[in-house]
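Revision sheet: structure tokens.
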Amino acid sequence: MAELNGDPVEPAQLQTLALTNYGHFTSMRVDGGRVRGLSLHLERLRRDCRALFGGDLDPERVRELVRRAVPATGSTTVRVTVFDPGLDLGHPGRADDPHVLVTSRPAGTLPLPPLRVRSTTYVRDVPSVKSVGLFATLHHRRQAQLTGFDDALFVDQERVISEGGTWNVGFFDGGQVIWPKADCLVGVTMELLKGAHDHVTRTVRLDDLTNMRAAFATNAAIGVRAVSAIDGIELPASHPIVDALSKEYSDIEGDLLSRSELGSHRPG
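Predicted:
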């Protein structure tokens, strides 16, 4: 399903998005008409819209557009992309008419197997914005997969760990859950887990990994997923802290997309 501002999208309307790659998005998993951290997803869209287009975005309108995209039952992954179809490559300063593209697909089955990741030196452009510009992310993921890993873990020139390609990373040192202190995109799942479990935020370097007892990845699509290897360092594929975080996350009740009782979600 794909709709632009609530109407079926035509291929020509996506030309600017494909050619300029300027915009932002959020992805959310919808289970039975509910989204964990819905208000955080909507606030991210508002914040990023101001950053990229200098204007506000109506969260209630976005909420309704998303509601139209999902069935009343089952699990769906919805992506909300905001871009200006009239953007001129030579004059991006004039981009001030953001449109809302909503796409959906069936959600994957959880839990997923552990990740094996390879570190790579990279810091995303404007890391606080969830940008549609995924070239570097996919390039580093591809390079990691070509060498036998599942994904890439980003570090800076000082070997400070920040995030994965499309996920946040956390660690457990035997006593505390640790979220890396670094320039990164703070994910909705990460924020929800910070509210559900005691933690500290501090700098984590690759050299610190030998002191870690577990590592995990988080995002809205995967929830909490164990990381079983970083470069040549093996970590447990299963650990009580990962199980505990996963349960705490699953116990968080999602917000209803509809403020009234869910009924038919699409016009007949």
